[in-house]
Amino acid sequence: MAAKTGDDPDSLMALATVFCLRNLRKTMCYQGYRNKLCLRSDIFLPSEICDKLVNTYMDLVHTDSNFEPQESFFQLFSDPRSTRLTRVQLREDFVRDRDLEAIRKQDLIKLHLTYCSNVSARSLKTLGCFKDTLVSLCLFGCSNIFYRKGGAPLACGEDNEEDDLANPVSRQALEKDFNFEGFGRLRLLNLGGLPDEIDVEPLLKTLTALTSLDLSGVQLARAAFLTQWKERMASLVLYNVDMSEELVGTLLELGKLRHLDVSRESRRTSKFKMTRKILTAIAQRLVNLVSLDISGHVMLDNCTVPHVKDAMGRASTEPCKSSIYPFQELKRPLQFLGLYDTTLCNVTHIPAYKVTGSKNEDQVLNAIEAYTEFRPELAHRAINQLFDIARIQHCSQLLRALQLVIAALKCHKYDKSIQVTGSAALFYLTNTDYRNDQSVRLRRQVIQVVLNGMEQYQEVTVQRNCCLTLCNFSIPEELEFQYSRVNQLLLKILEPARQEESIQRIAVHLCNALVCQVDNHHKEAVGKMGFVKTMLNLIQKKLQSRMCDQVMEFSWSALWNITDETPDNCQMFLNCRGMSLFLECLEEFPDKQELHRNMLGLLGNVAEVRALRPQLLTPQFITVFSNLLDSEADGIEVSYNACGVLSHIMFDGPDVWGMEEPLRDTVMNKMLDAIRSWDVTSRRNINYRSFEPILRLLPQGIAPVSQHWATWALFNLISVYPSKYCPLLIKEGGIALLEQVLELDSSHDDTKDMARKVMEQCENFKEEPMEINQGQEVANAQQA
């Protein structure tokens, strides 16, 4: 069978790296002085492994809530004699000045710091330690690195154990003395988002060997200084830099450029118009270009051929056929052309192999791919367009689309707009239309980023999108690998303070599905998280509003599921006023059949626990259960469940019946009348994974009516669903117990008659492969 898309396994290197990081004390480290993590003396790691450890560590910190960051992690790489680092990529506020200082003795070739707003001018000093080896440096979005903290700056090599948060960065304390003098090997530099107070020209003056420069968002007082690299500069990014005639003239002198990016966030913010003359000059003068991005610019209409000519023939990438006049001057098609948020992306003939825009799915996916890392504002818009494609049309590049959205959500976990649009897109990209094409691994990645979003944002839209996306998965099977985490997040959503109706409804449905068909240890674990109390709180709120809606019914259904064969959860139900709420719901909503069935199913679970049955043995409760024997709600289900509760109570014998009213014999007679009124061919909204609670009522004479109810239940189930329940009854030793029923003088004649028919049915049954639903006494109709 062919592998599904996205099913490539992780490499052994990747698996081993994650294992080591999750088990540092068992693999590479020991607990040192003051619980400090220390590298074992017999460990020597090359740069290939060290780089992987550090970069994977950062990924885990940002994407795995169960991963615990280590305070002294970067100290493990402080000694280049035992650990070698060469290429390091660090992201977000998690990174501190002391982390860079810890690795200052390493001969770094590549250091990328992205959105590290908690590093200060103290880290500029540390950068000087890498000046002899550094080839590639990124400081994108490190908005505070040119500002000092409250204390005096430290020289490279000085140690300071104080918490970096003790001295917040002061925007007034500008570091004016730093420049890149001595960074002779530096070739690639990204200073995107450099503060306006920094004059970039003197800062870069000594970097004569640069070949790649990113000055996104940096305002250039004088553009002419860029010409110092005209014989070397191969890549120049000036995203969101105000264009001018002077800047255009300077760019045209950089004849070695292979990649030029002069794009903007939006046409709305652009006063500069991209004319046919300018584009023609770029195409003619910058002959080495293979990549050009002019997204977000206002284009004059005279840049494109007439519509009639544009519509002729199949789409072509040949420059001579270009629908954009200036690009007819190109010597060869471009590898990449950014036309996002321009009118040019809509033409037919574009001389480029990869184009960003909004005309079609391919252009949109290219935009997400190109802009995710450094331009979340553009990626957000492109993902929103992908959302429309998946919702209204059909996504033909499913694997690529999913991988790009997952990457964007991981990269921008703290960007609300990305989380909103990304989670919405995932809902449509994982629904039934696309499901068969997705691998287990890919779907697990979706689940993980969705849960990340739920953890990070309590905002209504993100929570709703994430919950709806989870509904596209097989529950609980596909969520079991994150079972505890997803339950904790859902219970947090359902805290009493949260009143958003649609989210409550979806979250309760998910909670119900998660505890419907899982092992008892899962149910017990979820019960300890506060599941029972949370559901009862929701029920209490609905009672106060006198409202029996889906949230109310789902909550009782979830309690029915989580109490199945879990005495601790049944005890919690009783301890949290569950019986009082049962009575109140019964009185407030006398005609709600689904509600009654769910409540009685739950109480059947409680009644199965011998130690808890005395709490049900009160005149009030027995009278209620007895009255429900006459109920015709939901067919026989409510009457059947009420009789089941009473059957377990009767099984404890007459000695425990310490009440005068109602009389035990009266209740038993009423139970017999109810059972005899049921149609044994009734189809059931119920699933048994085990007959044990029923079978224990068979070989006894203390309560013949309980025996009668149990025998009727078996007769009904094997008559209506023989292929499902005959094998289960045989497997659990039910035939031998039915034989004992026949031998007991106390058994009713009609009980014995049913027992013989059950045994006969099983004997005649041609055994087929078992199809036992791993659920419990739960209605097939329980809300999906």
Strand residue percentage:
5-15%
Rg for CA atoms: 35 Å
Identify the overall geometry.
elongated
**Roughly how many Å apart are the termini?**
31 Å
* Number of discrete helical segments: 32
Subunit organisation of the chains: single chain
- Order of strands across the widest beta sheet? 3-4-5-8-9-10-11-13-15-16
Helicity range: 40-55%
**Total number of beta strands:** 16
Structural class: alpha/beta
Q: What is the arithmetic mean of pLDDT?
A: 90
Overview of the molecule:
- The chain has 784 residues and is an alpha/beta fold.
- 45% of the residues lie in helices and 7% in strands.
- It is built from 32 helices and 16 strands.
- Helix 10 packs antiparallel against helix 11 and helix 27 (664-677) runs parallel beside helix 29 (704-720).
- The protein is elongated, with a radius of gyration of 35 Å.
- Mean pLDDT is 90; it is low at 151-159 and 767-784.
Write out key terms for the chains shown:
784 residues, disordered C terminus, 32 helices, 16 strands, elongated, 7% strand, ten-stranded parallel beta sheet, two-stranded antiparallel ribbon, alpha/beta
